[in-house]
Design a protein that fits this description.
Helix 9 crosses helix 10. About 45% of the residues lie in helices and about 15% in strands. It is of the alpha/beta class. Helix 3 links the parallel strand 2 (about 50-55) and strand 3 (about 75-80). It folds into two domains: about 1-210, 3-Layer(aba) Sandwich (Rossmann fold); about 215-495, Ribokinase (UDP-N-acetylmuramoyl-L-alanine:D-glutamate ligase, 3-Layer(aba) Sandwich). It contains 18 helices and 19 strands. The strands form three sheets. The chain has a nine-stranded mixed β-sheet, sandwiched between helices. The structure holds ligand NAX, adenosine-5'-diphosphate and potassium ion. Ligand NAX binds near residues 88, 122, 126, 152 and 177.
Length: about 500
């Protein structure tokens, strides 16, 4: 697991390393510059490099990089875009050292001369939009087509939100220090950052921030009991599908089984019976007729719930009165069983504050931004700009585990921790992809994972499955079926690693 930090959090970590731990700022900076220098040597054409610097410590990193290049015999020009009057203490020292070593300093840059540009204009200290000469410079760099290495973060990207502050430099590669910044993890910042390397410069101890799973977290996958039987790996009830909507029931239930659940039962509209039995013979079926009375419907749901260890409700369910009765029965008779609430069940929940109040930490809600905006009664742009704030506010009404799906999916666990998922790709914006996620969450819960782990792990795994599908079929053409295949392949790989 890695921690993603905002600019403010990173500055506090810098300061505590310098002041409380007693590591001089210039030591950290030299390590930062050496990490950039290593990356330049490995990945960039160094026939002639231009290092563009601001007046702050990001600029000071850049000046140190120019010195290292120069001393190693690589042709380099240093261009100061900031003002001497606003130099930080470290920048004064770096600037003087560069002059002492006679690093070439230019007052104009003729971009055609350079094979690589180092962007050290602004780092986590960016406090306002780029304007004037900074904006013009960023635009020229972007127009030049020359490969760019960004120091810590591409200049112009907000380190906390990933938003472009007026204009931003587009990097080929970003070498970021100590912790990955949230701003280069979110869109559009992550696109501006290009390929990202996180380098240890001697700053440790982050405890606050947003968590993100990485390859080491494969160990979260519950071990299989060699003596287990289909009952021990979880009985999952999917209440899904409606007339003319059998696909969502298929994708979610298939994903639950592929994720390792022992048994899957689909509770759906009678009209889906034949197609689902043919498509997915491993699943058991319970059906209802739309003409049934609420009591008859409730009886069928309660019987199926008695059987299940985990219930998932919503994919393709519609928002009919029947669907509302199904959801109400689930939440009323859940007996503290874990419940995944997805898709149409979320739209129904948005209208029913009384049902929201019945949710607790064992309920996992999986809204995309449209569904979340209805649940939290805010706009999609509110959610994009202040995701954590609105997820926190929603928790006051509905104390659930929350998966807010987007190109970068946020997860808020019931203890208030946040996760941001970094796997997945735009090919996953395809019908049925969310249904697959719903099934993965349910399948993992059925194998005994608690919701605080199942939610972030399922999202991470689902993204990896999507990445596998994109490499097999291409992001443009991949479909939910390919994500199911990717899921099988990823789980096989994980089991072989564990
Ligand atoms: N010792 C340290 O504190 C370390 C700092 N490091 C580097 O230092 C960076 C942070 O340095 P700073 O805090 O000095 O901040 P920055 O160098 O990121 O930028 C701050 C400076 O830019 C000005 N500024 C901000 N937005 C502007 C805008 N839109 N237009 C014009 N001027 C603007 C500010 O007034 C300030 O002078 C990190 O990103 C990292 O690169 C690393 O070397 C690691 C160690
Ligand atoms: N650009 C993207 N990058 C990564 N993941 C994406 C992207 N677009 C969509 N996804 C993922 O695909 C899934 C889509 O879910 P959803 O919108 O519920 O689709 P559906 O209802 O069609 O199944 C979510 O898990 C979402 O995070
Ligand atoms: K930068």
């Amino acid at each position: 697991m890695q921690i993603l930090v905002t600019g403010k959090q990173m500055k506090q970590l810098d300061q505590s390393t310098i002041k409380q731990m007693g590591i001089p700022s210039l030591v950290l900076m030299e390590r930062a510059a050496m990490a950039v220098f290593d990356c330049l040597k490995q990945h960039f054409p160094l026939k002639k490099t231009l290092v563009v610097c601001g007046s702050g410590n990001n600029g000071a990193d850049g000046v140190a990089v120019a010195r290292l290049l120069h001393l190693a015999g690589y042709p380099v020009d240093l261009y100061l875009a900031g003002n001497h009057t606003s130099f930080t203490e470290e920048m004064h020292i770096q600037w003087q050292a560069a002059k002492n070593y006679q690093v070439s300093i230019v007052n104009n840059c003729r971009f055609s001369e350079y094979t690589t540009i180092v962007d050290a204009l602004f780092g986590v200290g960016l406090s306002r939009e780029l304007s004037g000469k900074y904006q013009a410079l960023a635009e020229k760099i972007n127009a030049s087509g020359i490969p760019v290495l960004a120091v810590d973060i591409p200049s112009g990207i907000h380190a906390g939100t990933g938003q472009v502050m007026g204009t931003a430099i587009r990097a080929t590669e970003t070498v970021t220090f100590a912790y990955r910044k949230l701003g280069i993890s979110l869109y559009p910042g992550s696109v501006y950052a290009g390929h990202i390397q996180v380098k240890d410069v001697g700053i440790y101890g982050a405890s606050e921030g947003v968590f993100s799973l990485d390859n080491k977290d494969v160990s979260w996958l519950p071990a299989r009991d060699p003596a287990g039987n289909k009952g021990t790996f979880g009985k999952i009830l999917l209440i899904a599908g409606s007339r003319n909507m059998s696909g969502a029931a298929y994708f979610s239930s298939k994903a639950a089984l592929l994720s390792g659940a022992g048994m899957v039962r689909i509770l759906t509209d009678e009209s889906n019976r034949i197609i689902l039995q043919q498509q997915f013979p491993e699943a058991m079926l319970s059906v209802y007729e739309p003409s049934m009375t609420p009591d008859e419907l409730s009886e069928i749901v309660r019987k199926a719930m008695d059987w299940a260890d985990v219930v998932a409700v919503g994919p393709g369910l519609s928002t009919s009165k029947t669907a509302e009765n199904l959801l109400q029965t689930v939440l009323t008779f859940r007996q503290s069983k874990p419940i995944v609430i997805d898709a149409d069940a979320l739209n129904l929940l948005a209208k029913r504050k009384d049902l929201q109040a019945q949710c607790d930490a064992a309920c996992i809600l999986t809204p995309h931004l449209g569904e979340m905006s209805r649940l939290a009664e805010c706009t999609i742009s509110d959610l994009k700009v202040h995701p954590q704030k609105f997820m926190d506010v929603f928790y006051n009404n509905c104390s659930c585990t929350l998966i807010m799906k987007d190109a970068r999916t946020w997860i808020r666990t019931a203890d208030g921790s946040f996760f941001l998922n970094l796997t997945g790709n735009d090919g996953m914006a395809t019908a049925g992809s969310g249904d697959v996620l719903c099934g993965v969450v349910a399948g993992l819960l059925g194998q005994g994972m608690n919701p605080s782990k199942a939610a972030p792990f399922a999202v991470w795994l689902h993204g990896l499955a999507g990445d596998q599908a994109a490499s097999a079929k291409g992001a443009r053409s991949m479909k939910a079926t390919d994500i199911l295949s990717g899921l099988e392949a990823q789980l096989q790989k994980m089991d072989s690693q564990n």
